[in-house]
Write a structure and sequence with these properties.
The complex is a heterodimer of chains A (about 190) and B (about 190). Chain A is an all-alpha fold and about 190 residues long. Helices cover about 70% and strands about 0% of the residues of chain A. Chain B is elongated. Classes of the chains: A mainly alpha (about 190), B alpha+beta (about 190).
Chain lengths: ~190, ~190
């Protein structure tokens, strides 16, 4: 018996979109889930940047992918080889019409895939607070403070620079180094 | 789809993107690439997971270290119980943590002059238990150091000596010394 999971992961984005577009309703659940698995993290990353809200980014990822599947099924995506661009364009459009999200949610969720599937990358799916806290403690004070101000207090580089008597460029350099060290610590289990 | 092993977008660029510190054109270029490249999208998702893990870790009050009012205000908005002690140089202050305290914040006031960095040393029963160097916040007249309340609860009834210093032209200059008379953990 073929390993469907392994097989579907090898399919290109374009082929995946083509299968969803051409398959009878209800016959492409595996392809729809795979499309969601591939692109929902990207939309969420995009959403966090533009909406500054974790919940808003989660909603955006769900809505964009559900709408994409809807448009694929309806034959409304013209260039299937550019499905990524279509999803990005949809993300941009929906970010600007955030108020439409709630209205569409109920109708779409009832019709398509289960969007509660795990989408965290496998290598970081086991992140837990004690481990991350230990790694944050292991950073230099200045690196930790810049990360806290950026990703907890949500301050941008110019404001942090002003508060800490640094240049915005220095703040960015400190943040680059801090993120790399935090990532190495979390991934390597070192603190 | 790009070739396997693509690393066109560096972690530093993704970090700036996630922090909102890129121009519109730079951000758009990164977005265009992420939506067509599985490798870079995978690294972006890893960074996203890492960044999203920071707030819960901070809210757990298990991190500590130098902070600013922006961080303390966010902790307050998140409902974290912070017990604050404001200390001027030479102060001797009774101190205790209650059972619902999660974090202890020391506001250490001093005349910082032109110092940009300070070193804080904590001694318990004559032994240095913490030594940490942090950034002075502009125009505040104080630095804020936080300690997980769980750590403070472990202390016996003892005096904690805090020394704040800076380095000027290679010499260490004391900015202030402070004494916390720790009375132990209290229950309401």
């Amino acid at each position: 018996m073929p390993d469907t999971h392994a097989t579907i992961e090898a399919v290109s984005d374009e082929a995946l979109a083509r299968r969803i577009a051409s398959g009878p309703a209800g016959s492409t659940d595996v392809e729809e889930s795979e499309l969601y698995r591939r692109f929902a993290p990207r939309v969420r990353f995009y959403g966090r940047r533009h909406l500054r809200s974790e919940a808003g980014a989660d909603d955006l990822a769900q809505e964009v992918l559900l709408l994409t599947i809807e448009r694929l099924r309806a034959g409304e995506v013209q260039k299937l080889e550019q499905i990524g661009s279509f999803i990005l364009g949809t993300s941009r459009m929906m970010c600007h019409s955030e108020r439409q999200l709630a209205r569409r949610r109920e109708a779409l969720v009832a019709r398509f895939v289960d969007t509660s599937v795990e989408i965290a990358p496998p290598s970081l799916s086991a992140l837990d607070s004690p481990r991350v806290a230990a790694c944050l403690r292991g950073l230099a004070e200045r690196e930790r403070l810049v990360l806290l101000l950026t990703y907890y207090a949500e301050r941008e580089a110019p404001r942090i620079a002003e508060d800490l008597n640094l240049s915005p460029g220095a703040v960015r350099v400190i943040r680059h180094r801090a993120i790399a060290r935090l990532r190495d610590c979390v991934m390597g289990g070192r603190s | 789809m790009t070739a396997p092993g693509c690393d066109r977008i560096a972690l530093a660029d993704l970090t700036d993107y996630a922090a909102g510190d890129l121009s519109g054109a730079e951000a758009a270029a990164i977005e265009e690439h992420l939506f067509s490249c599985a490798d870079c999208a995978g690294r972006a998702a890893e960074l996203d997971a890492l960044v999203r893990a920071i707030p819960p870790a901070v809210r757990s009050a298990d991190v500590g270290g130098f902070v600013t009012d922006d961080v303390l205000n966010q902790l307050a908005r998140d409902g974290v119980h912070v017990r604050t002690f404001v200390l001027s140089p030479g102060a001797v202050v009774p101190c205790a943590v209650w059972d619902d305290d999660e974090l202890m914040a020391l506001r250490l006031r001093a005349n910082f002059g032109g110092a940009s960095e300070v070193t804080m040393s904590q001694r318990v029963a004559g032994k240095e238990v913490v030594r940490s160097t942090g950034q002075v916040t502009a125009n505040s007249g104080e630095v804020i150091y936080t300690v997980p309340a769980a750590w403070v609860r472990e202390l016996p009834v003892v005096n904690v000596e805090v020394l704040l210093s800076t380095r000027e032209e290679g010499e260490e200059r004391t900015l202030g010394s402070y004494t916390l008379v720790h009375g132990g953990a209290l229950q309401r």
